Structures are given as structure tokens and as C-alpha cells.
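Sorry to interrupt, but I need a hand with the structure work. Could you write out one complete protein record for me, on any chain you like? Could you add the entry underneath, on a fresh line?
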Amino acid sequence: MLNADALKQLTQLKTDIRSTKEFAEGRVRGSNGKFGFVVLDDGREAFLPPAEMDRVFPGDRVRVSLTEEEKGNEKGKLSAELDSLIESELKYLVGQYIQRGQGHFIQPSEHGLSRWIFLPPKARGKAQPGEFIACSVTRHPFKDGKSQAKVENVIGQPDMAGIEHAFVVAQYRLPNQFSPAAQEQADQVPAQLQDLCAERKDLSELGFATIDAESTKDMDDALAVSASDNGWTLHIAVADPSSLIEPGSALDKEAQQRASSVYLAGETLPMLPGNLCENSFSLLPGELRPALVMHIKVAKDGALNSFDYEFAAIRSQHKLSYAQVAQFIEGDETAVPAEQQESLRQLDELSKARTEYRAGHSLVMEDRPDYDLVLNEQRKIERIEKQQRSAAQRMVEEAMLAANICAGNKLAELGGGCFSIHLGFRDERMAEIRALLKDVLPEYAEQDLHQLDTYLKLVKELEAHSDTEMHNVLAVLKRMLRPGELSGKPAAHLGLGLAHYATVTSPIRKFNDLHNHRVLRAALLGTEQPKLEERNGEALQQVVATGRQADRALQQWLYCQYMEPKVGEVFSGTITLVNGAGIGVRLEDNGINGFVRFNGKKNPFEFDGKRLRITRGEERFQLDQQVQVKVSAVDVDKRRIALELVAESAEDSAPEAGN
């Protein structure tokens, strides 16, 4: 037994050892293997060996001690040893119930969590091995590497029709049921509509019609256009749920919780109950509906001259489809009713003027095809239909952009609302951006690229170049942009090249549009303006982002199933991603993305991180380049599609600098 002096010396030794170690805090990041990493608060990344990774979950905040390997006179890999768990946010898991011998586990779908988690006998409920399940975490593994979970819900069997949809809804915890209070309030709305419309000015004589996809039921905007000597007057009627859904009501709380309708393949999770978004508030033809009606004077050159709005009532004349309107614009006068023809002709001319005006004064987004997923009875992809954007879609898009630009400017003037903002380049990429610009356009390298005027000038100069090299620079810069955001404070939208932008055209689909209607109505009535707290704006943004993640996750799962029997087939594609491991390619026929991994041992290559370019012998691969690829493997469980280049993708298809 150690005496008191020995114990004291041992304690002091431990204290001395700890004092010489470097400690840091950070977040755990998983990998595809059993190891992981800790992303430290100072930006460094430390390797977490498998034995340590067994004690944490991805996303955990931890305190670690650090060691650094030495290779000669140089420092090597930074490794971490867990010291303490600060917090763990992973409380919920979805995955598959696995039984191995006497052991029962959930195999989680959580990215970066590659181990199974034990399900004790009393925590399994009625779930059966093989089923997809949702679980709560009941025991964290930090103490001894042993974690446990409890089954909360059975999602379904792997062969159940639509299991992919049900799994993704559970995985991202998307709300798909309305509270009894919200549904009760929704049931009262139809009786209130008639009185509301009776109090308002009826603007039906303007000749409104909706233009949507054939299958659209939640029609939230209708259009009418009249010509004048100086240009056009664009009338936009938008469904008005804000007049009957008061802030703080049950429906309002539900709508704010959802933030937006979520459109999954073959399924819609609406922001408002179906009887409201598809009937009571939808601008159905022949039905009198309350609406926010905007009147925009558009000059012949496409400039927006004036903007006015009122809350009125309208009766849409017709529900027109994009296909009908496109046929009419192409010359088939039988495609649409006679009373809509002149308005549509004027809308076509107006949209062309607006497109040209925006090309000169702001930014026009790249026109890409849409891909419609046609599902079978099992709710898997039967086929994918490539749809080029039509003149009809362009017409509606320009009208909606005009409405949202005018609304953004008005709300900025009022000092309130929920703005769609885009702040340009990511701050953490500015050093790379400036280094690249020093090579090609040095006059921009030291300018403030977050300013709208400067950003616009830079993008337009790059777009104007016929030099392929400059086009590649623009493609690289676009990969360094931030995502768009929602904000209660007005700011520029650099992605569109606009001083202000706030959406108001989809209030039965998006809560920020609903909020903006309330602000505009308060301005007309002279009442107190509703405020969007910063935390509420951030919450809306997060919920919207979660819906988009769910949509991408579902599509990737369905894509992998669809492509599995196509292994060995060759496709044309466009390079959309370049990194140190290879290239990402979007297939032109179906819009599906896959990855070509380069093997540096068999065929050495060089990766240029500044220009996002790979050189391999005489071959060169860069963003937006056309390539031929073959589907080499599909891993449905891991949601991965592996591609390989075919011979035609070599030097012949790589653009030469300066051409």
C-alpha cells in the first residue's frame, strides 16, 4: 500500500503531466470509418482514434487533450484524447432494427455514426428486427463506450410502399399532423370568407387568371396585364390568409412551426391545413377570394416605375397551365380562352423587357432544366422527365420577381418585414478569393466585395469575357458564396444583384410571406407593425433548411434505387464539383449527381485548389466541363453513386485556356 508521501508524489506527478498538456474544446465530427475528428474552436482539426470515437456521438461538444506527432523537424498529425463531455445534442435517432445472436440494436442513419446502438429488452416495444424505427437515446457512451436507445416509433418495413418518404419524415421530424385547435380554427375559415370579401373592393374586372403546373392545387397568385403608351400595368393578386389568421392564434403557431410547405417527391407537407391552402385561400377560378393586389407600372425598357397595393377581393377567370400558355405564346390561339389572350400577349412582352432590364441592371440566374420525378405505386421512381423552362414559366417568374422587388423596397422603406438576403462571399474564403482575383482581375483583389455595386461589377465583367478561363473563374467564385438567409433587417441580395428583396407571393406556402402581408396591411391601416425577432428569423431559416435537407435526402435515396439497375450505362454529364479526391458530375438526362474518384497511385494527378481544377497527364477537368461517364457502382444503403470517366472525357473535352 502506498504511504501518504507516495500518494502525494503521485498526485503531484499527475498534476504536472496535465499542466504540460494542451487542452482545447471543439465539436466531434464522424467519418465513414470507425474513427472521427474534433473540429477545434480555433479552426484546427484533431484525429480521434476508434476507441475514443466509441465514447462520443457526432456533434458532441467535448474537451480534449492534444498531442502532435513529429516527423523529423516538422510537426505531423494532431491527435485528441477525450477529457470531458461538455454537451451532447443527439437525443433522437432513426435507423434499422438489427438482431445479431442475442443482441438487439439500431443501426443509425445519422451521418458519421457508424456503430450500432444497443436496445435493451424493455426498450424494444413492439418493434421487430428488420423494421425501420425511431428511437430516443437513453444512455450516452462517454463513460464506458456503451450506449443505449429506446424505440419510440415503428416507421415501417423496408418493403412498405413509400417507406422512403415515411423514413425521411421521421428522420427530419417534419410535422405532418395539425393540432386539434389549429384544425378547429381552419374549419371556421370558410364561413368567414364571404363576410370578409363583402367588405372589400372587388377587382375582378381586371381579368385575373392563375398560371401554374397542371397538378397545382394551392394557387396563391393570379395575374393580369394591361398595356399603356409608356409600357404596362402589371396587376398581381396574391391569396390573403393574413386577414383571417391572427398572430398568436393556433393556426399562426402551427404555420410558424412549419415555416414553409415542404414539397417531397410525390408528397406535400403543407404549412396550412389542406382545406385552407387548396380551397378557402386558393385562388380557384370563379370563386371570390380575399387578396393582396399589387399594381406595378413597368416602363417599355422594363424598369419598375411605381408600386401601389391594396387588400381587395378578386375572382380569377381561369386556371391556366404552363403548357397551355406556352402553346399560346408559340402561336396556338385555341390553347387559352379568348378573354385571356391580350393579357397574356402583354405579359409575354413585359417579361421579355424585364429579363433584358435585369440582365443590364442586376443579375439573371442561369436557366437550367427541371426534372420531374414520376413515381410508381410503390412510390419509387418510374421515370424522370427532363423539362426545359418554357416561355410561360419565364413570364410568371418575371412577374413574381417584380412583385417581390417592389415589396422588398416598400418594406425597407417601412423599416420592417422579413427580407430574403444574400451577403455574397463567405468570409472564411476571402483569402482564396482575393488570391484568385490577383491572378486574373487584380483591380478587384483589394476592393470590398461584399458591397452590391462592387460585386455586381465583378460578376458582370467576368460574364462579359469570351475567355473560357474567365468563365471558369466565375464558376469557382460561385462555389464560395454563402447561402441565402431570412432577416428581419433589410440588406442586399447579392445573388440577384438587388438592393432589397422580400417575398410576398406565397403566403399560404411560406411564413415569411405571411408575415410580410401583415406588415403591409399594418402600414395601410396605420396600426402597430408586427416585428420579427432575430431569433424567430433564425428559427424560420433553420426549419426551411431542414425541409430542403429532407427533400435532398429522399431524392438521393430514390435516385440510388433508380440507378442501381443502370450500372454499366454511359451518360453525358457536367462537372459540378472538383476536390482533392475527384469530380462530381450531374447527369444531363436525369439531373442525378454522382462522383468520379481519382486513384492517385495508379494514375497520378494534380489538384489546383485555387481554380478547382484537376490535371492528369494531358487531361484537365474543371467546373462546368462536359464529360462522358459510366455508372460503375451504386450503394443504396450509403446513398452513393460512383461514376468513372470514359475515354471521350479526356483532353478532347477539356476547354483550353484563352479559347
The chain has five domains: 15-87, 92-158, 180-419+497-554, 424-481, 567-653. The chain has 14 helices and 30 strands.
